[in-house]
């Protein structure tokens, strides 16, 4: 048996001062870098002074490259915006060679989580406690799925009819493999009629919808900017856009048989949420502060959790955080996530106006404000709204990921903060935030939406926790225990480290 192809990387990392690469051959890097450098230069020219803001908020792209696009092999990987420690911007690429090009479409199937694990690992390169050796070690063990190395189970062969017309025949064990057959069909047709192709997909960003792109060769250099902005009409691209219909299976006949036919032929974690999420929250004043200006609310009955971290001093912060949780305590239940999120946003806007006016009327004119992070759950879907540097983490399949990004001058890169080396252990010196409830006449909230999977754990916390604990330490605690045990362990860790600020955590679990 051939040794599985190893995943390598190339590009910039915040912890390092220049380009770094591991396990990627020169022929791949030369072709890839030449295209990427030219595309980046073109996007800078097109966007002008707006380039940096667009780059920092552009999404991670998953890609598959047919044989001949970047050397003789096919390739698959992820491309993420990044920067080195002296402030030079260039993306980070994680990639692996694919021995069977016709298997590339299977990597984009929702039942294959190879891209998910690669994205999570790429994002870990932006963390404060990043360790290059550990990162490289973990990436080295991220092998492609077995079906990529061995070929897929469906036997396919090209045939000609009596008239000489091209045809494809797929041998399947049963009809549940039909979606696999269409994946195989995609691979065969691309390989035959568009051999030097590239596949691109993203879960989207603030400016780009969830998208899938098929392109002849690599995206045109002067059209690369569309991968940053979502403006697909850019010059250099003759593109046809299609919006996929939302399809649902209609059961008929035997319900059991209909249900079986509706199952995905590839294994995946069900995204249906449990009937009830369980949670536990704790807030402590810490070891240096006299007042606890944090506040939190748990409303598992309607699927709402929130942490607020007040600011302003002289009890003003306590007033602000308490105003937020009191308003959310009166929030009615909702059966639609969109309406729930709109209602909560409206509530926070009202609190913002009240706090803004209260600050204007105070003798000192001081800001009376608070950060906030809110988690909402309806059915199998969640939404998170936030302003400031209170955070939401998700622990899934053994990995912890920060879902929010800090609203701070150093917290905007791809939704994760990047600190220079001298600041990595001194986040308390960087307490400037750019958004908060009550800090301005108009509140600007960020929002994300995502599915819940069985076994997911969510952590909402004030910055008092991440001042004392890194993502890896948080991840270790979230591995085991119920919501109370995990919350208590997180608080204990912060207290052991000195708890220089108020510390608030809520652990929410999908059993």
TrEMBL record:
NCBIfam families: VI_minor_4. Gene3D superfamilies: pa0076 domain, PPM-type phosphatase domain. It comes from Methylocaldum marinum. Residues 279-510 form the PPM-type phosphatase domain. GO terms for molecular function: protein serine/threonine phosphatase activity. PANTHER family: PROTEIN PHOSPHATASE. It comes from the Bacteria. Residues 248-275 are annotated as: Disordered. This is Protein serine/threonine phosphatase. It holds the Pfam family PP2C_2. InterPro entries: PP2C, PPM-type-like_dom_sf, PPM-type_phosphatase-like_dom, TagF, TagF_sf.
């Amino acid at each position: 048996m051939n040794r599985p192809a190893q995943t390598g990387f190339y590009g910039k990392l915040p912890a390092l001062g220049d380009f770094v690469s591991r396990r990627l051959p020169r022929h791949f890097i030369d072709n890839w870098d030449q295209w990427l450098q030219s595309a980046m230069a073109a996007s800078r020219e097109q966007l002008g002074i707006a380039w940096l803001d667009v780059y920092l908020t552009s999404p991670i792209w998953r890609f598959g490259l047919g044989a001949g696009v970047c050397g003789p092999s096919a390739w698959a990987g992820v491309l993420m915006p990044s920067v080195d420690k002296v402030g030079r911007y260039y993306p980070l690429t994680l990639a692996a060679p694919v021995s069977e090009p016709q298997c590339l479409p299977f990597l984009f199937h929702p039942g294959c989580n190879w891209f998910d694990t690669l994205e999570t690992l790429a994002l870990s390169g932006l963390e404060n406690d990043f360790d290059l050796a550990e990162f490289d070690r973990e990436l080295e063990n991220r092998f492609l799925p077995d079906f990529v190395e061995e070929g897929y189970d469906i036997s396919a062969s090209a045939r000609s009819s009596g008239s000489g017309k091209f045809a494809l025949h797929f041998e399947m064990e049963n009809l549940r493999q039909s979606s696999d057959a269409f994946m195989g069909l995609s691979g065969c047709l691309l390989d035959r009629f568009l051999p030097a192709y590239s596949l691109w997909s993203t879960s989207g960003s603030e400016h780009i919808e969830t998208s899938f792109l098929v392109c002849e060769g690599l995206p045109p250099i002067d059209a690369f900017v569309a991968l940053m902005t979502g403006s697909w009409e850019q010059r250099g691209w003759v593109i046809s856009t299609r919006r996929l219909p939302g399809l649902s299976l209609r059961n008929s006949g035997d319900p059991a048989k209909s249900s079986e036919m509706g199952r995905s032929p590839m294994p995946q974690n069900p995204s249906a949420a449990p009937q009830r999420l369980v949670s536990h929250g704790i807030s402590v004043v810490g070891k240096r502060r006299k007042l606890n200006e944090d506040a939190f609310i748990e409303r598992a009955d309607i699927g709402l959790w929130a942490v607020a971290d007040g600011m302003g001093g002289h009890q003003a912060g306590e007033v602000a955080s308490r105003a937020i949780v009191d308003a959310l305590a009166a929030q009615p239940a909702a059966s639609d996530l969109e309406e729930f999120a709109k209602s909560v946003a409206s509530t926070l806007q009202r609190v913002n106006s009240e706090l803004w006016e209260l600050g204007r009327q105070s003798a000192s004119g001081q800001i009376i404000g608070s950060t906030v992070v809110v988690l909402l759950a309806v059915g199998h879907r969640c939404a998170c709204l936030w302003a400031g540097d209170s955070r939401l983490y998700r622990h899934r399949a053994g990995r912890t990921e920060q879902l929010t990004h800090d609203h701070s001058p150093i917290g905007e890169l791809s939704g994760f903060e990047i600190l220079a080396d001298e600041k990595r252990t001194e986040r308390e010196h960087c307490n400037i935030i750019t958004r908060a409830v009550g800090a301005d006449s108009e509140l600007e909230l960020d929002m994300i939406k995502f599915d819940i999977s069985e076994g997911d754990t969510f952590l909402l916390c004030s910055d008092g926790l991440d001042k004392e604990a890194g993502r890896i330490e948080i991840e270790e605690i979230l591995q085991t225990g119920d919501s109370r045990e995990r919350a208590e362990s997180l608080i204990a860790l912060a207290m052991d480290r000195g708890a220089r600020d108020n510390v608030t955590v809520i652990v929410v679990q999908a059993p």
